[in-house]
Design goal:
Layout (H helix, E strand, L loop, with lengths): L15 H60 L1
């Protein structure tokens, strides 16, 4: 067994470089997670807006068609 990184109590001793690397790694992982969450939120928002606009456009076509039918009936 190699005891170069462990003291008599069994605790590991990390070098400053290892500690720095771990800190950078944790920071990058946290940033990637946050970016992923934001991207997911934005994707859902775009889907919701597209659905709302599409629904509105459908209503406009239906209203226009109803108005056209009403005008045709008045013309009879």
């Amino acid at each position: 067994m190699d005891d170069t990184n462990a003291d008599r109590s069994g605790a590991d001793h990390l070098s400053k470089g290892e500690i720095g690397k771990d800190a950078v790694q944790s920071t990058v992982e946290a940033a990637a997670s946050a970016v992923g969450e934001v991207a997911s939120i934005l994707t859902k928002a775009v889907q919701d807006v597209a659905g709302a606009v599409g629904g509105f456009a459908t209503e406009i076509f239906e209203i226009r068609e109803a108005a056209r039918k009403a005008a045709d009936e008045q013309g009879d």
